[in-house]
Amino acid sequence: MTLEELSQKAHALWRSWEEVSANLASPEDLESVRIKFLGRRGMLTQLFSALKELPASDRAEAGKILNVLKERIESALAEKRALIAAQARLAKLARERYDFSLPGKWRPLGKLHPLTQVRLEIEEIFLRLGFDVASGPEIETEYYNFEALNIGADHPARDEWDSFYLGEGTLLRTHTSPVQIRVMRTRRPPVRIICPGRCFRRDNPDATHSPVFHQVELLWVERGLTFAHLKWVIGEFVRAFFGPGYEMRFSADFFPFTEPSAQVHIRKKGTEKWLEIMGAGMVHPRVLEEVGYDPEEVTGFAFGLGIERMAMLRYGIEDIRIFWQNDVRFLQQF
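Above: the chain sequence. Below: its structure as tokens.
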């Protein structure tokens, strides 16, 4: 083979590429043609193999001709590949085109349960007042649930028909007050916490009772606290949660872990009916001593409220059991 013959074959090979590549429409066809021209046994590869048949003086020029041809085919191949990909994207967009004049599909959105919404709102109120959120185990020991809170062995709350005992001195906690004990045993005053959580008692389910319920308890221990501070904090909560137009009152009560103790009632101004919303009081000196605090140096107050109770008052719900029925018609209202 002479240099001129190789040059003619190279020119013919380019024309052949132009003819074949003009009708390519898919990546598979393009790959097949690439192998035909540039593969290990392709037509251009065969021309490169023929270089050894040329005189030594012509091989450099012939190699230059074939390399230029190879670059032209590879460049044209890349352009064709990009063109086919662009055409494929346009075809896909045409298939997936949306008609925005058609009516849309309604897709329901999930929501937080109303009890969760109320709990988060209560937490946010006290977080703004400088309190931290604390949590503890739902399975408690009798010590943390009763003894450390000055609830003696003869107290009715410790009877088996009032609490869920699990054996070996453990039970499902009946309130979130044990969290207060656990925190005070690991911190020195000042202590400002709220303790939201789930509680358990042997109550027969009815419109106002449930064996499973939720509480939020508050504890503030520091030097110089008085009942006036307790009243101020509760007043701030009532204004933030219920809004303007409410008034509150305190009535004497008894809790083993507070002294003095009180019930807190609210009513809307202009109405006659008072509604009880929480129990409160100054932390009993025995409770402070139990966690290693000196009641002569620090004082504290605590109160506890039911999240279900708050939600029922907020939304005018008269039956607590509806919170647990998972009725979508009810839950969609919140």
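The chain has two domains: 3-95, 116-331.
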